[in-house]
Amino acid sequence: MLEVVDCRLLEHIVENVRGDETSDNNIILFRKLQVLKLVNLPSLTSFWCYQSRKANTCKVAFRFLRLSSIVLKYLPDLKSFFHGANYEFHMPRISRVIIRKCGLSNTLFTRSVFRNLRTLHDLTVFDCEFLEGIFEDAKCEETLDMIDKIITLDQVSIIHLEGLPKLKSIFFGATYECYMPSLKYVNIIGCGLSVLFTYSVFREIQQIEKLHVSNCESLERIVEEVGGDETSEENCKSITLFRLSSITLQFLPNLKSFGCASSYVFNMPKLQNFRLIKCPQIEYSVPKK
């Protein structure tokens, strides 16, 4: 375990010694580290600092072979962590990521880091006011095959995002859709989303048990259709979620509907609690077959 707490002047976790040159593609290996916890480091600006004339060209991969848990709290000057201009994290066994009150901006994970989070179970992010996205979209000039646009994280069961006013998307972007077939609990509070799920993503989260969405001022729909290629008989799109037992939609001033059209049919045979509180613009909620 590596735990660093209350070091007010600490700026970097790992720093090369000037003159300790690395090759253009270098791997730094952590074989046994299982838990990384950084708390209350007000001057921390990056995980890795590379002071060299080659700083713009050297690429470093940090490989954490056994790392299962990362906790980052109260790091106001930290703009990025899992990736930087010249480094990326590889975490083949990561299962839990908890982040609170960090200065993170743009996106949390690059596409290459994100695609390899195969064992991630719990993603919790609180109070990062500058964070715009969890997962990085491809660059405009990149051309992706269809297989590269679909990302599946098989083990994720908990998503809790709270106090992220600039967050624009979670489960989909301009160049990707993210499928989480084991997802059970979704809590979205105080985020800047306009749409939470696409139709194709939502219909695949068959394990979901609880959905809580509140205090998202820009949210207009929970489920949105993307593209026009998804059709079914009688022009009706059907989603069956056998385990979903609780839905809370609360303080969503611009929420217009649960789905994007009246042709959506949601089958939720185990739904016991449906709370709709202070959503003044709601047009219709959840049609049930």
TrEMBL record:
Entry keyword set: Plant defense
Keyword Manganese annotated: no
InterPro entries, A to Z: At4g27190-like_LRR, LRR_dom_sf, Plant_NBS-LRR
Every Disease resistance protein At4g27190-like leucine-rich repeats domain range: 93-217
Keyword Transmembrane helix: no
PANTHER family for this protein: DISEASE RESISTANCE PROTEIN RPS2-LIKE, NB-ARC DOMAIN-CONTAINING PROTEIN-RELATED
Record's protein name: Disease resistance protein At4g27190-like leucine-rich repeats domain-containing protein
